[in-house]
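Task card 7
Instruction: Convert sequence to C-alpha cells.
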Amino acid sequence: MLDEQQLLDEAKAAYHRLMIGESVVEVRDHSGESIRYQPATAHKLLSYIRSMEPNFAVPVGLGNAPLRFL
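Output:
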C-alpha cells in the first residue's frame, strides 16, 4: 500500500499530465482503488489533491474558468 506522500505525488503527476494534454490518467486512492480522470473531470482530481494538501495552488489560468482577454 502506498503511503500518503506517495499518493499525493502520484495525484499531482497525473494532474500535470492532464494539464499538458494527456487525455486520460489513472490514480489510486487511499483505499487502493484505481480512478480514471480525463480533462473534463480534472476538477475532481484537483479536489482530491487539495483534500490531501490544502495548500496546493494552481497557477492562474489553469483552473476550470475560461481565459478572458480584454
